[in-house]
Amino acid sequence: MQDSISDITRKSYNAESGVREIEVFAEGMKNLLGEDLYNKYEAKLKKKWYHDTTPVQSVLYLKQQPSGLVDVSEVKNQEMNGVSIGESYYNLPINKLWLGGQGQFKMITHFEDSQGKMHKLFDQRNEMGEVVYEMDKANRFDIDKGLEAQGMYLYSGIKDKTAGIAAPLIDNFGGITYTKDNILDLLSVNSDRDLMESFYNDMLLKDFNESGMPEESKAEVAALFQRKFISNVLHDAILNNFISEQNPTDLSNIHLLLNKGYAKSVADYNKRMQLYADRSAEASALSFTNSRPSGMMRLMIVNDIDTTGNSDTDGGLIARHAVFDDAVKAYGFHPQAGHLKPVFAGQIGNSALLTKSLLQRADKIGING
């Protein structure tokens, strides 16, 4: 029996090909056990399948040499100085949304200093009201340079997490090498160009001050900052569907990133990264053939009632019965569950839609059940 279950699991999940299909497993187990016995244990079987088929993904591991230079390597399922390195998830939404699933974003969890001491990347402590990071400033630029040698850079933090997200440097994108002037020109279509330049210089000065580098290294810091700035803008444009795979050289709409509703601040972006870097089990379209045979989700965004002029709630989600019931069944939840908290990630027009909200089963049966 165990061999048969293992064989069915292998057919439903192949790490090399990327195939991971819960409904293939469900059908195989139904054929093996018979419908009555399968229905009795369906929830437990599905939960076990999700657990068993969630792979450990590699993360970027930072190791500082005695010289101060930082080596960057990909590590998974390894113990480094008594710490297990690697993160369990199937895929990150940010990689799924980047040009149709071609994203190469990586998590960074740990940093080993030149003394062999391990640090979580963004571990911090409060000293007399001041936030102090475990890594001192002198390490910051060493890490930047180590990542740059691998074609990567530190892209974002994640709210309430000690890990960070690294992204590829893409200042050379679509066969074109961009400069900060190219990007500032494009961003300034509806903005004051001199003001944009001033903002850039303010950010550069802050980056230099946080790098811990001496004055004579300012040009080196500025060169890398330019690459990071360009890459930040292009990544954000791609994630919000302003740049397409079909026409990667068309950047004519990226100035819209300055409109209301996109990134507000570093703190806001780190909060959004909680969703971009969510590691929940990914749903299968085949689990929703009853409610959505096309495999495509339909949604309607409803504004909150007017109160103070802005929404006074965090929002919520309501699903029609058939969709909600398919979700409960797909993940092996109790059939009488009335609330779930799923993560939705997708692109609608020139925007990314990501939300993790309370999902409720509609009180009444609506259109198509």
Biggest sheet, open or closed, and with what strands and sense?
Answer: 6 strands, mixed
**How large is the count of helical segments?**
10
Number of domains: 3
In the predicted model, the low-confidence regions spanning at least 5 consecutive residues are none
Please give the number of β-strands: 21
Strand content: 15-25%
Architecture overview:
The protein has helices at 2-12, 22-33, 35-52, 93-97, 137-149, 180-187, 193-211, 218-239, 266-276, 321-331, and strands spanning 13-14, 19-20, 56-57, 59-64, 70-75, 78-80, 83-85, 87-88, 106-112, 118-120, 124-127, 130-133, 152-157, 164-168, 172-173, 176-177, 317-319, 339-340, 343-347, 352-356, 359-361. The protein is globular, with a radius of gyration of 24 Å. It has 369 residues and is α+β, with helices and mostly antiparallel strands. The strands form eight sheets. Strands 4, 5, 9, 10, 13 and 14 form a six-stranded mixed sheet that branches. It contains ten helices and 21 strands. The protein folds into three domains: 2-52, no CATH class; 56-280, no CATH class; 285-361, no CATH class. The model has no long low-confidence stretch (mean pLDDT 90). Helices cover 35% and strands 21% of the residues.
Sum this structure up briefly:
This protein is of the alpha+beta class. It is built from 10 helices and 21 strands. The protein has 3 domains: 2-52, no CATH class; 56-280, no CATH class; 285-361, no CATH class.
